[in-house]
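Q: Entry one of two.
A:
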Amino acid sequence: MDVGGKSGESITHEGEETGYVLRGKIDLNLDGVVHSLQAGDAFCFRSHVPHSYRNAGDEPASILWTCTPPTF
């Protein structure tokens, strides 16, 4: 994710999501609560929770992100 990149408006959908921040810093917004994460941090949440994210650092960020069922 490029510096300043973001997912857009919060979304909801069926399923669950997990992720692991490989590099950089991100802000993960879950129902209005912002979780600041950096390389080595992991997360898991039910996808019915409104969620969005953004690169909160000054370098590109990489996240290994899984979602079930697939939304792409």
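Q: Entry two of two.
A:
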Amino acid sequence: MAASDDAGLPYDAGLPYDAGSPYDAGSPYPPELARFTVPGGGLRVPYGAEADQYGELWLPETGRPPHPVVVLVHGGYWRSRYRADLMHALAHAVAHAGVAAWNLEYRRVGDPGGGLPGTFTDVAAGLEALAGLAAAHSLDLARVAVVGHSAGGHLAAWLPARTRTPWGVGGRIRLRLVVGLAPVADLRLAHAWKLSDDAAAGLIGGTAEEVPELYQLASPADLLPLGVPQVLVHGTADDAVPYEMSVRYQRAARAAGDDCELIRLPGGDHFTVIDPGSPAWAVTWERLSRALDLG
């Protein structure tokens, strides 16, 4: 398993909306985040009994069935005040392009059962739930990719290795591509750099020194190789998840034998990667189209 060094960053890379944010779960987002939410469009389908165990299935507006699927996993440093609606703009864009979008919600830190293990078991169960939706909605389970933003990028990269951990379930759904949009791909570095008020320790329930075995099972960087092609899309001006994390992760992934591409966005910030009107999404969609054989 790969490990990362803990060298410090030359600047403060804390999330702008940290633990001291004046709004809580269910409160409106600030305008810079609210612009990514759009009303309606998805069929809400539970994959568990808890309130946040559901996905939104956005069915294609065009294209011939069975439809390939892009699984979306939102970010927010695993905290409850950030929700699946942050991926609505991307879900709409995916469906408009003729591909089904499966936008996952999951229990987060601050929710009952959130954090380790609930957050992990939820995204694993949410992915596996596609098997029960395929027939009714004409989904092509041979063509599935996952796209995660920020902390959702961490969870997306963890999914291919889920069955090698105590919290993965099933294994019926295989992924053709993992896309990390400014992903928190290395929990040890996130903890060492104290990103977003040490959100990694909040997720795991302890520091890397206290529970190293949990970081080893929860961090994609420690689970390499993933055995699935990966694409990282990251802005150099990201002040929430440093670009340097993706540089180091790509280096480790390639050394472990994985196919891992890093797309550098000069001057790009943390949220340009989830803007469907941005060049960042255009290059992301090109990689997804290729992986899903969209022609």
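A: Comment on entry two: The beta strands are 43-46, 54-58, 67-73, 100-104, 139-149, 177-181, 230-235, 260-265. The CA atoms of residues 152 and 278 lie 19 Å apart.
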